[in-house]
């Protein structure tokens, strides 16, 4: 890139930032995304990349939820920007899980789905996470139990209950994702849920829910379909 092009690009970004500081709500989606990309690509014009990402994934949410392999397939989205993107993803996931630190009550399937979606959206393989709560349904832990492949994950009731007992939890909520996009529970999901329903009370632990996350929607085995909440990534 020539000195003239760099100077013009930096002037454009400076004007864009000034507009953002005056009133972010009036900015177009591609302009907001352009500014964000600029923190990962400091010396490049990010407008074309921002527009291409929105064209491919439909919205800022779609871009943030996209899988790493999908992002890397977009020309201009390289390994350096992916490192920045991973930091952003982790930041948003921890923000959504901040109830752990504030000891908020985790009492609705929607609250669980919102937190889990922030962590698991765009994940290319199955992961199982466990939310542990006290007697008042306040979060005491939010931990990954295990990782699996694209279409399956091996979870044993013993693994879940050992975690609950180790944390002295009063209740458990199991969460896992379906990268394939179908939130309907599999036979093994149903069997695991039934086993935990039976075994948990024997150990003095309440089994509260099993939530399945996809990039599009969520399903609770206790409450049925859950509307995808805003605020996730």
Q: Spans with pLDDT under 50 lasting ≥5 residues?
A: 229-233
- The overall strand count is 6
Radius of gyration computed on alpha carbons: 21 Å
Gross geometry: elongated
What secondary-structure arrangement, pairings included, does this model have?
Blueprint: H1 3-22, H2 29-38, H3 47-57, H4 60-65, H5 68-72, H6 79-96, H7 99-102, H8 109-120, E1 127-133, E2 139-147, H9 157-166, E3 171-177, H10 187-199, E4 206-213, E5 218-220, E6 224-226
Parallel strand pairs: 3-4
Antiparallel strand pairs: 1-2, 1-3, 4-5, 5-6
Structure description:
The chain contains ten helices and six strands. Helix 2 (29-38) packs across helix 3 and helix 6 (79-96) runs antiparallel to helix 8 (109-120). The chain has a six-stranded mixed β-sheet with strand order 2-1-3-4-5-6, sandwiched between helices. It has two domains: 3-93, DNA polymerase, domain 1; 103-226, Cytidine Deaminase, domain 2 (3-Layer(aba) Sandwich). The chain is elongated and about 65 Å long. It has 233 residues and is an alpha+beta fold. Residues 229-233 have low confidence and may be disordered.
Keywords:
10 helices, six-stranded mixed sheet, 2 domains, elongated, 233 residues, DNA polymerase, domain 1, single chain, Cytidine Deaminase, domain 2, 6 strands, alpha+beta
